[in-house]
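Fill in residues.
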């Protein structure tokens, strides 16, 4: 038991010695940490001498540099320099319903000589020089395509615009509808081209209780229509402007009742009546819309032609197999219900003339520039006055004629023999004025 107590005493002695050693180390450390530290001794600050400061410079950070706009790329080379390297310009023309625009003409607006015609599938091919040009396709009766830049190496599609239309009615002088009549286009001027277009001479028969009509698929431009009905001579509308894809509505044409032309046809030498001679209106319209039936002479040579114009000059043509045909101009009912014209015919000779007319002796036609002299009769007033083929008629008796339909120009140039008429013609940009005396011309 004494040995156990001795061992415990030794352990306690060792433990006390260890604790004392730890205390001797910790107490100085705590004392050093808790004492306040003296302020460090700093050397006196020297003030710098005043100096001129340089202006501040902008800071070019990485973000600011990236935000600066890049330099513009160099312009592309002109189209002429790329044409040699480009292939043909290919594409297609389609109508408003997506069908091939076969026969459409495609041209570069900035170089009209660069053109092509679409094939049966609407495909076209322009030469390499057309690369980058502005192209337009034309295909009546549709409106022209919108101008579009075309390029080689891609399929260029040009879309035609739907044609326009005209809707209206035909009434008599009292405002009542004319239920049946012939309708046709008398003249047409394409919009924007400044040139006269071709005339649709095919008349159509209209039958409608309200007198209404509608013409569809019309090329943009200015139109003049002609209507006629039995007993009612050909009458023209006011000019109607048609736009692509737009209907010109409320066109009203007043078709008046005509007059009656009576007379007798006799042999010029024997004064005997000419039986079964045909008498008909001549050049009242160039459209074919003439519903006035011809008249035949009876056993006394008498005739009665119903439906001639009640006012204004008109002409009639008289035919017979054994006689020279004769055109009688300058007739006028002067607002009355009837007029009279007795006519003499000459027998046909061997190898002689077959037609006799009174006027200036010129054949007229519609061209791209307007009503033009197509030919002159040798020895006639027009030939003697120096008029020639290709002259464009711009004035008749001092009044403008550039907008007159062909039939109106013909009637104004015709007239009784011996009367005078002045005509202004455009010849190569120079206007010439001539005055002629109308005469009988045979051919």
């Amino acid at each position: 038991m004494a040995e156990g107590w001795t061992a415990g005493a030794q352990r306690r002695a060792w433990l006390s010695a260890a604790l004392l050693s730890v205390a001797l180390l910790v107490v100085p450390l705590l004392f050093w940490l808790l004492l306040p530290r003296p302020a460090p001794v700093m050397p006196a600050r020297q003030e710098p001498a005043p100096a001129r400061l340089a202006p501040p410079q902008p800071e070019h950070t990485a973000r600011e540099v990236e935000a600066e706009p890049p330099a513009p790329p160099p312009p592309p080379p002109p189209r002429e320099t790329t044409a040699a390297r480009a292939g043909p310009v290919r594409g297609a023309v389609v109508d408003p319903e997506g069908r091939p625009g076969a026969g459409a003409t495609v041209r570069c607006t900035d170089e009209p000589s660069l053109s092509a015609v679409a094939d049966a599938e609407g495909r076209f091919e322009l030469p390499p020089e057309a690369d980058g040009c502005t192209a337009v396709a034309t295909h009546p009766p549709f409106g022209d395509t919108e101008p579009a830049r075309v390029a080689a190496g891609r399929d260029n599609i040009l879309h035609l615009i739907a044609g326009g239309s005209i809707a209206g009615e035909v009434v008599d002088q009292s405002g009542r509808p004319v239920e049946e009549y012939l309708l046709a286009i008398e003249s047409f001027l394409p919009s924007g081209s400044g040139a006269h277009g071709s005339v649709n001479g095919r008349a159509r028969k209209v039958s409608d209780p309200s007198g209404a009509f509608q013409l569809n698929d019309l090329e943009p431009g200015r139109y003049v229509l002609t209507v006629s009905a039995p007993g009612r001579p050909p009458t023209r509308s006011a000019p109607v402007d048609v736009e692509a894809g737009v209907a010109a509505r409320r066109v009203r044409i007043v078709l008046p009742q005509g007059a009656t032309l009576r007379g007798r046809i006799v042999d010029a030498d024997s004064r005997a009546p000419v039986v079964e001679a045909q008498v008909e209106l001549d050049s009242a319209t160039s459209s074919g819309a003439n519903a006035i039936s011809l008249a035949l002479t009876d056993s006394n040579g008498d005739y009665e032609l119903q439906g001639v114009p009640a006012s204004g000059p008109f002409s009639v043509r008289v035919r017979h197999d054994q006689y020279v045909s004769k055109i009688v101009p300058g007739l006028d009912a002067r607002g009355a219900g009837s007029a009279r014209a007795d006519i003499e015919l000459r027998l046909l000779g061997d190898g002689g003339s077959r037609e006799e007319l009174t006027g200036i002796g010129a054949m007229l036609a519609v061209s791209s520039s307007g009503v033009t002299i197509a030919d002159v009769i040798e020895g006639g007033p027009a030939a003697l006055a120096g008029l020639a083929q290709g002259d464009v008629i711009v004035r008749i008796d001092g009044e403008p004629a550039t907008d007159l339909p062909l039939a109106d120009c013909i009637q104004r140039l015709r007239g009784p023999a011996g009367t005078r008429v002045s005509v202004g013609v455009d010849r190569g940009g120079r206007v010439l004025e001539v005055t002629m005396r109308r005469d009988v011309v045979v051919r």
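The domain at 164-254 is CATH 2.60.40.1120 (Immunoglobulin-like).
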